[in-house]
Amino acid sequence: MDVWSWTHGWLNPITISGASFWALGMFWGWSTIANRLTTELEKAVHPAIASLVAIVPFCLLAIGLEMFWETYLGRSWAVSCGILVCAGSGVLKLGELDRQIQAEKEAERRQQDEKRDRF
Asked: What is the pTM of this model?
């Protein structure tokens, strides 16, 4: 089997799209770790390079997971599971942002209550 073939092997559009879904989903799901890694790398190198380097571990893990799923369940399941991970991580990220916004609103409300109670 020719690994570099676009119709057979690991390097084909379906595998690339599946791995991309996996990488995006894991990046969103583990965004706190990704942000921490990016922040640490920005201290050592240019921020643009740090951002690109911070993505590499997620891409490598995504390629491994995509290859695993393709081997044992088939291409359609591999891409489908990548889409599910991406959607689930997106919902998780939206929940985190909503919790953050609610906490900020609560803090503002407390400050306004404290100001009102002083007078």
From this structure: 0.76
Length of the chain as a residue count: 119
Nearest partner of 30 among 79, 69, 70, 88, judged by Cα = 88
pLDDT of residue 7: 55
Show the low-confidence residues of the chain (pLDDT under 50): 1-3
Residues 6+ apart with CB under 8 A from 25: 82, 85, 86, 87, 88, 89, 90
Residue 60's nearest CA partner among 5, 89, 19 is 19
Q: Could you write out the three-class secondary structure of 1-65?
A: CCCCCCCCCCCCHHHHHHHHHHHHHHHHHCHHHHHHHHHHHHHHCCHHHHHHHHHHHHHHHHHHH
54: which residues sit within 8 A by CB, 6+ positions away? 34, 37, 38, 41
pLDDT of residue 109: 92
